[in-house]
């Protein structure tokens, strides 16, 4: 993840990761690998914070739930408890909130597809849409 | 030249609350029951089949109802009304039991045109007698989806009303106690 970039992960209702994306897209793949794993670990750790926070509020957007060194983790929980996690290194609350709201719409549309099962592969159109949103907001 | 267009439902479905005519729903529902009926041997299997059919509907309906509210709140109260157009007739707590609740419907929408049946076809709405992850049924699924694992089953009571009996899993009660 380059400076100013973000890592976005969706964890489904049954605690399975459904989707993952990075903005802007990583160019040098090799060096990123180890870094990438670390970042995923940060997000996984933040899931515990989400589980604690989620019963204290009715809001879907949980704001910043965790931080690790220079990274912030923001979270968003949908009605059926799918969790959107975003790892970012710049403070940008409005952008993040807007991104989550737009991503939620994309997710609802994805879910409305009767052929989409939560264990199934996420179609390319959803991936494109999320990347477009990432470009727009970050 | 004939141009193929994307079906409107997918792009517009999310936009506004739509109402489906009851006859259209009843027609599809009866076809579904007939289809299931030819593939089962016992009433229990039919119930299970109907519950299975309700699984996917529950989670989708919950997300859609919440999204349409546009309040970015995890509000699950509006769902029953958005599904059936009216609130349930009553919600009761089962006496001498902390974890059981009943939703009573005198004339459930799904049973409107079903005269007599060996099973209560509201099983489609109810469902899930197993509290394990493959919960089934619309309500079972919905509760599970909203992180309230519970067993839900449909029954007839003596006055002919349909009762959805909900039994919450013990961890839900524990969590509620912690919150309070």
From TrEMBL, chain A:
Pfam families recorded: Sedlin_N
InterPro entries xref list: Longin-like_dom_sf, Sedlin
An annotated GO BP: endoplasmic reticulum to Golgi vesicle-mediated transport
Any GO CC annotation of this UniProt entry: cytoplasm
Gene3D superfamilies in UniProt: 3.30.450.70
Source superkingdom: Eukaryota
Annotated protein name in UniProt: Trafficking protein particle complex subunit 2
Automatic annotation (TrEMBL), chain B:
Cleaved signal peptide residues: none
Subcellular location, principal: endoplasmic reticulum
One BP term from GO: endoplasmic reticulum to Golgi vesicle-mediated transport
Keyword field contains Endoplasmic reticulum: yes
Coiled coil: none
Cellular localization per UniProt: Endoplasmic reticulum; Golgi apparatus, cis-Golgi network
Entry keyword set: Endoplasmic reticulum, ER-Golgi transport, Golgi apparatus, Transport
GO cellular component: endoplasmic reticulum; TRAPPI protein complex; TRAPPII protein complex; TRAPPIII protein complex
Quaternary assembly: Part of the multisubunit TRAPP (transport protein particle) complex.
Family note: Belongs to the TRAPP small subunits family. BET3 subfamily.
Name recorded for this polypeptide: Trafficking protein particle complex subunit
